[in-house]
Amino acid sequence: MTTTPGASAPSAEPFGPALLSLIARESADCIKVLDLDARLLTMNENGQQAMEIDDFKVCRNLLWPDFWQGDDRLQVEAALDRARAGQRSTFEGQGRTFKGTPRWWEVRVAPVLDEQGAVQQLLAVSRDITARKQAELDLVALNADLERQVAERTRQTLQDAQAQAAFVAFVESVGTETDVLALARQASVVLCAHLSDASVGYYQFHDGRWKARVWSDHLPADLVAVITAGFPAELPMFAPVLATRGAVFIDAWDAEREGVPYTEAYGTAVNYPLLLKGEVHGILSIGLTQTRQWTGAGRALVQAVGRALNLALERAEDLQQLTERGADLESLNSVLRRERTFLQAVMQSMSEGLVACDEHGQLTLFNDATRTFHGLDASPLPAEEWAGHYDLFEGDGVTPMTTRRVPLYRAWQGESLSDVEMVIRPNQGASQGLARQLLASGRPIFTPGGQPLGAVVTMRDVTVRKAAEQQLRRSNQQLTRSNAELQAANEELEAFTYSVSHDLRTPVRHIISFGELLRRELPTPLDAKAERYFGIVSTAASTLNMLIDGMLDVSRTSRQPLSAERVHLERLFTAVRHEVGVVQPQRQIEWQIGDLPTVKGDADLLRRVIAALVDNAVKYTRGREKARIEVWAEDRGQSWAILVRDNGVGFNPQYQGKLFTMFQRLHRQEDFEGAAVSLANARRIVTRHGGTMTAEGQPGAGATFGFILPKTAP
């Protein structure tokens, strides 16, 4: 086994096993062999002593990383990972012995390879460097102490220079700085630099009290709370200052006498007023802890700093007024710029053309719509050339417009105009050949004093509208002709229907009457064939009579004028249901009639519609042992849907379109009698009410018929 990848055969190794064992035994380092999971397998005796292990058995198979904590443990884990990958690594870290003694170690971790070069075990060699580390720490502490002494001497040397520099900076700031609070902070720095035991506060009047706005950083929290809460104007410390508007120096400071708690440590104080227009605007307050009486130099320093602050305050006030005026002007300019931008955006997004000129007749406004109309941009032309350059024509599109007829020229000359027709027929530019019909409106523009400023004209493109109006006129003319033709045709058809119906009644009555007389004249009894012939004649005549009645009913319905009124549909259905019970008392019908609305319409005509739907449902359910007819209404927003559903024979939906056509039948006459007119007549009535008929069904599964009426009167 070897710790070096690619080692030669054992016979060629420079050190034999015995020599290696001796080296490990005599080494002062802690030599450990670990498995790949970093568990302790063996450790040399000197290593056990260094790790304070009395019996290695208690440590065998323990995880070596558990002897390390925090970042040091992370170093151990990283070194182990590199060793598992066949790499060596070295690091320094602090780990505890088995008995918990902290020590510094220099650690080397390497892989142990077998003859094939695979990592079989891990080798960790730790050297105790605690003494060296302690010496390094002692040296660092000694150097730090020396550096501190040098820094203290340097600080003392620089303090005076900093004080002078602070004062110079303060004086310079007085000439440029306008923020009084910032100057007060600089004044505090200057005063504290020259007066090492000074505490500084700057007060302003707010909410009825003098409150500290700036104070020295070293003030205790209790005192800061007091001075920021503020003092009344009658405070002994401030009252003389406010009365005299001059500086008041206080020797032999007495905290109780002055009414300022937490200031017992101070010996002297001064309060310097900052005046603005003769009134106290702020108070600079300074307290000293190491003297009971002000010196001449101290007084002079305070006076100098106070005067400088007062000058800065006056200049700041002047600058503030100038700034406010400038801000007002800038705000006004900003508003004007926004309004101008907004108006430009509005004008450019308008679909109407917008053009304006100044008092000299020079074009000043030409929006995008105007450019589109002309296919040209604005040109610096005299007014006399506008009509020709921009291809302007009168409303007929043929007559060239003269200068005095140009809408903008007329407005420029003082005329107000509205909806003047004009045509643009561009001969150049992007819109060449595209004629536009426009309505122009404009007026002159004057100053509030009545001086002319120019004129403005809007142009509305009515090309599409004009074309639509012309097309509408043609369509209306065609519709009028068609309506007249249709009216004439309907009148002829109704007259024909009425005439035919009346003219057919007499032959039908003759057929029925003379057929009956002929039957009576023949010897009785008649044979079966003769009876069948007479039956066919009688049935055919009766059917023809029903058809004539249906045609007459349709004709009367078409001619009857609508009488709009409030119609209670529930009453109509109840009445029709009662009639069914009277006419067909033998029928067993289960009726389910829901709540039905009140609509606007002709009650008599709507009753015919309801009768047609109910009769239809009754007729086609007579083959059911138990007939069921349901009636209900659906609110569909702008209309009502009235529906009648039955469980009768139904119908093939393929032939739904024939249901409301006269004389169209979906069932045999032999199975269900009738003239096939009632549903067609019902549709005509509903159509006259502005509604529609509906029908749904399946063979053998019943049918649902209904009508939809608008909620507004027809």
Explain this structure.
- This protein has 714 residues and is an alpha+beta fold.
- 44% of the residues lie in helices and 23% in strands.
- It has 17 helices and 23 strands.
- It has helices spanning 17-26, 45-50, 70-84, 130-176, 180-194, 221-229, 239-244, 255-258, 296-349, 368-374, 386-389, 407-412, 463-521, 528-559, 569-583, 603-619, 678-688; strands spanning 30-34, 40-43, 89-96, 102-113, 119-128, 198-206, 209-215, 248-250, 268-276, 279-288, 353-358, 363-366, 392-394, 417-424, 436-446, 452-461, 565-568, 589-593, 598-601, 627-635, 639-646, 692-697, 703-710.
- The strands form five sheets. The chain has a six-stranded antiparallel β-sheet with strand order 12-11-16-15-14-13.
- A hairpin with a 2-residue loop joins β6 (198-206) and β7 (209-215).
- α5 (180-194) runs antiparallel to α9 (296-349), α13 packs antiparallel against α14 (528-559) and α14 packs parallel to α17.
- The relative contact order is 0.04.
Overview features:
single chain; 714 residues; alpha+beta; 6-stranded antiparallel sheet; 5-stranded antiparallel sheet; 17 helices; 23 strands; 44% helix
Short précis:
44% of the residues lie in helices and 23% in strands.
Q: In terms of topology, how is this protein built?
A:
Layout lengths: L16 H10 L3 E5 L5 E4 L1 H6 L19 H15 L4 E8 L5 E12 L5 E10 L1 H47 L3 H15 L3 E9 L2 E7 L5 H9 L9 H6 L3 E3 L4 H4 L9 E9 L2 E10 L7 H54 L3 E6 L4 E4 L1 H7 L11 H4 L2 E3 L12 H6 L4 E8 L11 E11 L5 E10 L1 H59 L6 H32 L5 E4 H15 L5 E5 L4 E4 L1 H17 L7 E9 L3 E8 L31 H11 L3 E6 L5 E8 L4
Parallel strand pairs: 18-20
Antiparallel strand pairs: 1-2, 1-5, 3-4, 4-5, 6-7, 6-10, 8-9, 9-10, 11-12, 11-16, 13-14, 14-15, 15-16, 17-19, 20-21, 21-23, 22-23
